[in-house]
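Re-run requested by the PI after the first attempt was lost when the workstation crashed. Everything re-entered from the original request form. Ligand of interest: calcium ion.
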Amino acid sequence: AKESGRNRFQFFTPEMQHRLDARVTLEQGLMRALQRDEFVLHYQPQVNIRTGKVIGMEALLRWESPELGLVPPMEFIPVAEESNLIIAIGNWVMEKVCATMREWLNTGVPVVPVAINVAASQFSVQDLEKQVRDVLERYRIHPHLIELELTESLSMDNPEGTIELMYRLKDIGVAMSIDDFGTGYSNLSYLKRFPVDKLKIDKSFTSGLTRDPEDRSIVTAVIRLAHSLGLRAIAEGVETAGQLELLAREGCDELQGYFFSKPLPEAKAIQFLRDGVSM
Ligand code: C2E
Ligand code: CA
Ligand code: CA
Ligand code: CA
């Protein structure tokens, strides 16, 4: 504040320069990561609340950097989104999931559908439909084995285009869900028109479920909303038996969270599927 007079027109502070440098370094790191094949997918089981059976797995991205160690997605996805690298990374994820499933099918692993996170900017790319068709065909993966998790934020700038693309993806036969439901820009009039199968309750609501009456009200409302629109509800971030009990009482259909399993590296995911673990 003392130097504000002198610095008034100095928009580019050393602090900003530092942050920019860090971002450029991270971007370059991500580009190299793609070239050097440093990304890996972990898989987190999703469970049917009534049968206790594993009904799906969510593919979650990690970066195994030789310099930085295991980098969690929250540290690089936002940068990837801003720099458009998310398109190449998103394609890698799609490719990797299908290649992995083909391998599992070939080796007799009892596969379940795999959910893939799709960033908003990926969704606005016109050839997403072609991409999905192409990769499913190349690996001969049945579309029912793939689910796309879309965030609410994608409905914002071009809702008509979004809905159209959703219908074209629906035509392919892949399932779709709205991720982090309730945390973004909830436009319920669009929700009605989205050809999705599931609403995914964000873990911020699940975690407050047993102590915060407001979180509980929200969760109950989302489950009712899902059912009244003919959709299923899945809760993420389920960590305790107490949360599970409440979710069961409120009629939630599916669960995902540390209570059942953390996201698992591929070998462990295979083991989990082979053992047919249930709750
Ligand atoms: P998300 O899609 O909401 O995924 C759920 C996150 O919650 C994951 O974090 C998961 O590991 C974590 N989680 C699961 N169960 C529990 C639990 O019981 N307790 C707690 N505290 N956390 C739990 P992760 O793997 O670090 O991913 C963070 C976010 O990064 C994801 O949030 C998603 O938005 C993004 N992301 C991950 N993989 C991809 C990807 O392949 N593509 C894109 N575009 N985004 C991805
Ligand atoms: Ca997700
Ligand atoms: Ca998300
Ligand atoms: Ca979430």
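Saved to the shared folder this time. The first helix runs from residue 4 to 7.
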